[in-house]
């Protein structure tokens, strides 16, 4: 349903002439230019002090001058036809075009409502003018085909009476979902001409029942609704099959004067008095509500009139209200009341719209067209459906492929997850192992640090010990050198004696080369010390290297020490050997240790050398007269001295060697472990024993040599007569 634009109810005022002689002074004036109506007191130009005073006294005491403005205000000079032209004609024309239209006549009894609506044969009212206009317009319109129906009803004491059917009274109202409010059994008479309608109108008027009241009284309490239904459809092929329909309601209301006597807000008194027309009362109430802008709870259903004409009040209708008033001072209150109603009514907004439906053929055609359109649409949809189906199938295939792919990916993913799980386990295992190894390493680290520190300490001690040994060695060397020098001196002296005796001097041994650490060893020791001091990193590699190197050094050192010891031992042996060999120079029975050696001084020639020496000694004795006269004494004494000297020297060397050995072993023991100490102790005792043996052996040999030498000398002396002669 189309919703039209909002259009306000058109409101106009019609002031009739004064009805003389019934009515007194005329107090209302109109101005059609400004569309206003006012009391003569309100317009100074029309007033005189005398009249003002009189009017005030008689009619409008306490209310002051009044002035109202409307869409149109018509004074007594205007005809109904003129009012029709301005007010109703535009509505009638639009009704012909499918709109609803309503024209109300509102006002007190005798204000001219019926006069304005129906008029007289000479001066037709709005109704005949409308009908005339409608049929003229229909006649003029060649494009459309019109159908007109008429109904005519009266609402009297809230009863709906069909004026076209005498006796058809108290008709019921029903709500039709499609057509809205309908009056059951109301006659709708189709009409084709103006005269037909006028006849019907007159017929209805004639058949109004006035049994209970006088005509005047009845008329003042009844409402009449003259309704024209107009349908039209475009003629021939030009039409679109659409039917326009509209209805024109021409409403002549009951007199409003009794309403004025009553306060419309005081509804409780309604019905009690019996004076108040319910439909009129509800109309005023509805207008008030609508004027207040309320759209809900409009009491249309409170009266028959408002229920039947609800569409005309705020609904789908072009509506105009002609308010008729008397200009007389005596009707001042009623006029004022009507004007106030009019003022409220002009605020009300309606929403008229075009009423149009399709006729059957048009409907069929429209359906056909719709079917064709739908068929086209359907085939289009089918095509689309087909292409969609194809696309869908394609998509489904793709989806299936994607599904398979996803499935295979899922499998791969599953495998990967398994692998990942395994890897994770491996990693966890590795991590645990690593953690354990780390813990172990840390413990090793601390262990190693301790060990390393110990080794470092040990190494420092070894260094110190080595330094001490070196010092010791140097001292020994010096002592040895001194001993050797002294021995060499002794040997030189012995050699002199031997030479003097004509023997071959013994070879004096060279002092042994002193021990020196190899440059490589020194460098390594220095670098190692430096490294340990500056860049200590306790790593297994360094530790191993250090251990092996230090072990090597210790071994080397031990070897060197052993060498030194053996060298020292050899030197001591040598020393004793030389000492013993010197004492064995006499040709006696001394047995050389290595007789086959060509360098050995203990050869057989020694005896002859010694013999020569004996000669030399004797010669020396003879040459010196200060000597004792006993040659034997001299020789013995000399040999004795020599023996004692050698004995002292051997003893001194022996003691010296014992002390040195003692010191050396003590020192060695202090830095050795138990096994080493035990070995050293054994070695020490062995050496001491050996030394003691040597010493005793040497002393014994010395004694033997001395005795042998004495015998040899005696023998030699006895064998040489020459010497005996010389001496004795
Ligand atoms: P209502 O229908 O309001 O009760 P009527 O239309 O019957 O009043 O009018 C009452 C009297 O006044 C009638 O005799 C009528 O001819 C007369 N009358 C009403 N309006 C006019 C007018 N504009 N010009 C001349 N006479 C009028
Ligand atoms: Mg009337």
The helicity comes to 55-70%
Structural class estimated from helices and strands: alpha+beta
The hetero compounds bound to this protein are: adenosine-5'-diphosphate, magnesium ion
Main beta-sheet strand count, sense and barrel state: 10 strands, mixed
Rg measurement, Å: 84 Å
Low-confidence stretches: 267-273, 512-518, 532-539, 575-612
Percentage of residues in DSSP E strands: 5-15%
Shape: rod-shaped
Discrete helix count: 17
Domain Kinesin motor: 8-348
InterPro entries: Kinesin-like_fam (IPR027640), Kinesin_motor_dom (IPR001752), Kinesin_motor_dom_sf (IPR036961), P-loop_NTPase (IPR027417)
GO molecular function: ATP binding; microtubule binding; microtubule motor activity
Protein name: Kinesin motor domain-containing protein
Protein architecture, described:
The chain is α+β, with helices and mostly antiparallel strands. The protein is built from 17 helices and 17 strands. The strands form 4 sheets. Strands 2, 6, 7, 8, 9, 12, 13, 14, 15 and 17 form a 10-stranded mixed sheet that branches. A hairpin with a 4-residue loop joins β3 and β4. α11 packs across α14. The chain is rod-shaped. About 8% of the residues have low confidence. The site of adenosine-5'-diphosphate has 14 residues, from α3.
List the helices and strands and how they pair.
Blueprint: E1 7-8, E2 10-15, E3 28-31, E4 36-39, H1 49-58, E5 67-69, E6 72-74, H2 80-96, E7 101-107, H3 113-117, H4 126-140, E8 144-156, E9 159-162, E10 173-176, E11 180-183, E12 189-191, H5 194-206, H6 215-221, E13 222-234, E14 242-252, H7 257-260, H8 278-291, H9 304-308, E15 318-325, H10 332-345, E16 349-350, E17 356-358, H11 360-500, H12 519-534, H13 540-583, H14 605-623, H15 631-670, H16 674-719, H17 721-727
Parallel strand pairs: 2-6, 2-15, 7-14, 7-15
Antiparallel strand pairs: 1-16, 3-4, 4-5, 8-9, 8-12, 8-13, 10-11, 13-14, 14-17
Helix pairs in contact: 2-4, 11-13, 11-14, 13-16, 15-16
Adenosine-5'-diphosphate (ADP) binds next to α3.
């Amino acid at each position: 349903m189309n919703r039209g634009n909002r259009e306000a109810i058109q409101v106009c005022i019609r002031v009739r002439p004064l009805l003389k002689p019934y009515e007194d002074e005329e107090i209302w004036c109109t101005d059609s230019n400004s569309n206003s109506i006012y009391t003569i007191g309100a317009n100074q130009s029309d007033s005189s002090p005398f009249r003002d005073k009189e009017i005030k006294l008689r009619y409008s005491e306490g209310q002051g001058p009044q002035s109202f403005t409307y869409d149109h205000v018509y004074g007594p000079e205007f005809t109904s036809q003129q009012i029709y032209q301005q007010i109703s004609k535009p509505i009638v024309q639009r009704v012909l075009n499918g709109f609803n239209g309503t024209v109300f006549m509102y006002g007190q009894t005798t204000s001219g409502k019926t006069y304005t609506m129906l008029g007289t044969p000479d001066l037709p009212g709005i109704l005949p003018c409308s009908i005339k206009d409608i049929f003229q317009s229909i006649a003029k319109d060649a494009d459309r085909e019109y159908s007109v129906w008429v109904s005519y009803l009266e609402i009297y004491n809230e009863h709906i009476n069909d004026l076209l059917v005498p006796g058809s009274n108290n008709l019921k109202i029903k709500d039709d979902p499609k057509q809205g409010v309908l009056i059951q059994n109301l006659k709708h008479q189709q009409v084709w001409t103006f005269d037909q309608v006028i006849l019907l109108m007159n017929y209805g008027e004639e058949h109004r029942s006035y049994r209970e009241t006088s005509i005047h009284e009845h008329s003042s309490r009844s409402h009449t609704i003259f309704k024209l239904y107009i349908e039209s459809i475009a003629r021939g092929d030009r039409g679109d099959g659409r039917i326009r329909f509209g209805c024109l309601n021409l409403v002549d209301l009951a007199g409003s004067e009794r309403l004025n006597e009553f306060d419309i807000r005081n509804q409780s008194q309604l019905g009690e008095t019996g004076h108040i027309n319910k439909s009129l009362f509800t109309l005023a109430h509805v207008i008030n509500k609508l004027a207040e802008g309320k759209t809900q709870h409009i009491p249309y259903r409170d009266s028959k009139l408002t229920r039947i004409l609800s569409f005309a009040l705020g609904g789908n209708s072009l509506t105009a209200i002609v308010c008729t008033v008397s200009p007389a001072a005596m009707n001042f209150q009623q006029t004022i009341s009507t004007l106030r109603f009019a003022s409220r009514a002009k605020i009300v907004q309606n929403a008229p719209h075009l009423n149009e439906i399709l006729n059957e053929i048009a409907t069929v055609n429209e359906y056909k067209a719709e079917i064709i359109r739908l068929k086209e649409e359907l085939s289009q949809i089918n095509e689309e459906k087909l292409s969609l189906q194809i696309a869908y199938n394609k998509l489904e295939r793709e989806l299936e492929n994607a599904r398979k792919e996803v499935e295979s990916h899922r499998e791969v993913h599953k495998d990967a997850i398994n692998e990942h799980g395994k890897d994770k386990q491996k990693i966890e295992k590795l991590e645990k192992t690593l953690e354990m190894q780390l813990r172990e390493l840390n413990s090793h680290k601390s262990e190693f640090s301790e060990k390393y520190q110990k080794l470092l300490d040990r190494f420092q001690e070894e260094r110190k010990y080595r330094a001490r040994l070196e010092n010791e060695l140097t001292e020994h060397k010096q002592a040895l050198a001194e001993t050797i020098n002294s021995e060499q001196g002794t040997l030189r002296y012995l050699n002199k004696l031997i030479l003097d005796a004509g023997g071959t001097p013994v070879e004096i041994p060279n002092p042994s080369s002193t021990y020196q650490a190899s440059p490589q060893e020194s460098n390594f020791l220095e670098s190692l010390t430096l490294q340990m001091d500056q860049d200590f990193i306790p790593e297994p590699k360094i530790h191993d290297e250090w251990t092996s190197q230090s072990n090597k050094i210790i071994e080397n050192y031990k070897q060197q020490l052993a060498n030194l010891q053996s060298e020292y031992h050899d030197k001591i042996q040598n020393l004793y050997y030389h000492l013993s060999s010197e004492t064995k120079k006499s040709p006696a029975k001394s047995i050389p240790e290595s007789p086959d050696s060509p360098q050995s001084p203990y050869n057989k020639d020694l005896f002859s050398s010694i013999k020569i020496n004996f000669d030399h000694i004797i010669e020396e004795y003879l040459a010196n007269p200060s000597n004792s006269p006993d040659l034997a004494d001299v020789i013995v004494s000399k040999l004795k001295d020599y023996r004692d000297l050698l004995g002292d020297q051997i003893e001194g060397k022996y003691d010296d060697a014992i002390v040195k050995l003692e010191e050396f072993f003590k020192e060695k023991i202090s830095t050795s472990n138990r096994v080493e100490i035990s070995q050293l102790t054994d070695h020490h005792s062995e050496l001491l024993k050996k030394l003691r043996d040597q010493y005793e052996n040497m002393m014994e040999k010395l004694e033997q040599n001395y005795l042998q030498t004495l015998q040899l000398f005696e023998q030699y002396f006895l064998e040489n007569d020459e010497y005996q002669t010389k001496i004795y």
